[in-house]
Specification:
The structure is a homodimer of 249-residue chains. Chain A is α/β, with parallel strands linked by helices and 249 residues long. Chain A has one domain: Rossmann fold (3-Layer(aba) Sandwich), CATH 3.40.50.1820. Chain A is built from 7 helices and 9 strands, in the order E-E-E-E-H-E-H-H-E-H-E-H-E-H-E-H. In chain A, strands 1-2-3-5-4-6-7-8-9 form a 9-stranded mixed beta sheet, with helices on both faces. In chain A, helix 5 links the parallel strand 7 and strand 8. The longest helix of chain A is centred in the middle third of the chain and has 26 residues. At the A-B interface, helix 6, strand 9 and helix 7 of A face helix 6, strand 9 and helix 7 of B. Chains A, B: InterPro entries: AB_hydrolase_fold (IPR029058).
Chain lengths: 249, 249
């Protein structure tokens, strides 16, 4: 087991940002500047082609840390951010660009590549969670949530299915193909986001993935608009969801 | 034009409750006890078989008045609450009970009866809104929202389609049959609630009504559960929706 090594620290507006590594995997942990008490932890998965400090990540983290007093951790997915790409990564990225340039659907490439990335990322997330729970401000028995859309859902669904420490999750914006069977094993409360006019993910496909979760408590938020037009107020909604389920307001 | 007559007034926990009539139609207006300034107005339509002071109405009104400083008005629908039933009302209610007792779908009766009630209720709501806007705390140019589920949607959709004063609305829990064509004329921001396992309204029917709205800004909230299991946090979500669109936080 790798322990967590902090590599940088800064602080601003009530939020402490600490870069870390767990083995080869770089991550970032945002925490309330004020807090010494234990607080819930939200793991966030970034989208394809971005990284752990992408604006969507820092924006959501800020809301969760300052609004709820939670810790938030993001790690770079394999081949993303500060991590090297394998030859396989390069091939799949080239295939995606070719599909886009040809005006072909990108779904088949994205689904295939994300499935591969999830196989690499799930054990990394589990090792990261082990290491984070060694920190005194987090601890081994505190509530843990997961929040990831797009590729963050492709990784988060199989992670949540095998990881009983995660007790509430926000997913969305993904095809069901490689995920629906796994989603049927998930029973924790879920909030799921879908774009009603998504130009990449057919409406029926998004609805099918939401439908697959076995959770008794699950909520679909479908908004008019294209794939990248998820309204900003959905980030606030996700924060309220975690506040309800992880136990702080 | 009938003016508004107040018939009773009480006050509790920062909320002033005033019963009123506009012509033959009885209603209730809830307002912030503190406010002399003009504030936005939310019209709320109650569900079938209930009335203007049903707990769902008083609960939502309390959130809107104390949380946002809004006025909230509800009127008894035709044949409901303090209003007499016509012979036609009695026939339709008997038909509904017969369908339920026989284990037949209640949709056809509810859709037919609600369509009839909406024809009677829309002009009553317009006269009520005229009269409410004469009050100095509301005024003729302030923002107006509409919030109604079930029968409140059956009445609210045709009302909103003909009433340009309504600029944001929350609907849901209804069949599309008599409403989808009218919904296509509506372009204001909409939040729409649907129960994913509704035993009366088929999932596809609920989704079809949401789809019909021409609004560029529309959000579907679909929750796991039966028709009457709409989670209580959706009332808070509706309040935030109105706070965003009617202009106060």
């Amino acid at each position: 087991m790798h322990s967590l090594q902090f590599t940088a620290e800064s602080s601003s507006n009530g939020v402490v940002e600490r870069d870390f590594t767990v083995g080869e995997v770089p991550g970032v942990l945002w925490s309330p500047a004020s807090g010494a008490d234990r607080a819930p932890l939200v793991l966030m998965g970034h989208g394809g082609g971005t990284h752990k400090k992408w604006p969507a990540m820092t924006g959501r983290a800020d809301r969760l840390v300052t609004g709820c007093g939670f810790h938030v951790a993001v790690i770079d997915a394999p081949g993303h951010g500060d991590r090297p790409r394998t030859a396989h990564d390069e091939q799949e990225i080239a295939a995606l660009y070719r599909a886009r340039a040809a005006g072909e659907p990108e779904g088949p490439v994205v689904v295939r590549y994300n499935t591969h990335l999830a196989e690499r990322a799930v054990p990394e997330w589990q090792a990261t969670l082990d290491a984070l729970q060694e920190l005194p401000g987090i601890g081994a028995d505190g509530p843990v949530g997961y929040f990831g859309l797009n590729m963050g859902t492709a990784i988060g669904v199989p992670l949540t299915a095998v990881e009983p420490r995660i007790t509430a999750a926000v997913f969305g914006l993904h095809w069901p193909d490689a995920l629906a069977e796994t989603a049927k094993q998930i029973t924790i409360p879920i909030e799921f986001m879908l774009q009603w006019d998504d130009e990449h993910i057919p409406r029926e496909s998004g609805l099918a993935l939401f439908d697959a979760f076995a959770s008794k408590e699950k909520t679909l938020h479908a908004n008019a608009g294209l794939h990248k037009e998820l309204p900003r107020f959905e980030a606030d909604s996700a924060v309220r969801f975690f506040a309800r389920h992880l136990g702080r307001a």
